Amino acid sequence: MRYLFDTQALVFYLEGDPKLPSEIRDFIEDYENRGYVSVITLHELVLKTAKNQLELSNSLAQIVLYLKEAGVEILPLNHHHIIRLDSFERESYHKDPFDRLLVAQCIEENITMLTSDTKIPFYKKYGLEYLQYELD
What we know:
This protein is an alpha/beta fold. It has a single domain, classed as Rossmann fold (3-Layer(aba) Sandwich). It is about 45% helix and about 15% strand. The chain has 6 helices and 5 strands; from the N terminus they run βααβααβααββ. A 5-stranded parallel beta sheet has the order 3-2-1-4-5, sandwiched between helices. Helix 5 (about 80-85) packs across helix 6. It is globular, with a radius of gyration of 14 Å. The two termini are about 25 Å apart.
């Protein structure tokens, strides 16, 4: 299965946070599955660390190197994703612009979103596939 980490899932995975359920960690580490991280997520990490809202054990450069070595693909943002984003209802259920862009990427690229966000199922009507988990 092809899947895209949302930002929280990526941070919990990289930091070894025990809140990420072991079955999700096993899913991520299963080589039959193909992981993706959006440039949107990397941008969000930069913003949150710059504002001291998030502390990471490694630099962004080290994280990207680790992801590439682990076979995780960095997904760029393109105009097709923005057009998909524009198709969502104006008063969308989810107000987080980063998550809305991730959803648009997943729909456009036919990638399953890996998330614990309870607002994400709203986008199923747009064709979003997601793997939702509860935090431990």
